[in-house]
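Something for you to look into today, if you have time. Just paste the record in under my message, thanks.
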Amino acid sequence: MQSGKPGWFVSHDVDGFFGLAVDNVVQLVVIVSLCTTVCGMPAEMVFGRILPGAAISVVVGNLFYAWQGRQLMLKTGRKDVTALPYGINTPSVFAYIFLVMAPTYRASGDAELAWKVGLVACMGSGLIEFIGAFFSEWIRKKTPRAALLSTLAGIAVTFISMEFAFQIFEQPLIAFVPLGILLLQYLTGMRYPLGIPGGLLAILIGTLLAWSGSLFGNPVMDSSRILPAVNSLVSISLTCQQAPGMRPGAWGGPI
């Protein structure tokens, strides 16, 4: 047991933050893309209801988990407690969209109904998890660890890592350098100059390579698209504010 009063922050938290932030941003991009294309949802529904709700849940969930981690630190006197990261579950995103909401939209042609059915499915899933929490320890003790971890690993490889792995090989000039930065840090414990977290350095280098790709004949990012993208976001924001049920002049969901 380690002595001394546990602190609120360590340098590795910065690295963890960027890893979790990038993961959640990717999930939000996937949600926007699939909800608008597969479920036929208008932009004001996605940006005015779904994304604000997801953002609030991520913030509240991470704050609650951080509080739990803090309580465990105070109870045990340890300084190496890591709070469980809270984010959007990738397999659940695909499951709810393709197995629940998309079939509802195809059958009814009503995006509003598809959204409501998705909410009911989420609530049902939450109730199952809540009830299962009372039996989780018994299940963990009775189930071989290999069976539990193989399921988790299979989901992670199939739904989380493989698509991004293919994208790495699709753009090797850009993706291999950030990948190498992360592998060096996590596999060897290497520390970068000025204590820069590996996750942050990988994001910065990857972004720089993507925007400078045109210099070596691989124009991935186009600076001419920045202004139209900003104008599009402003237009969506104004549309959400003027949509029925929205409070005038405020960004948010229904009153």
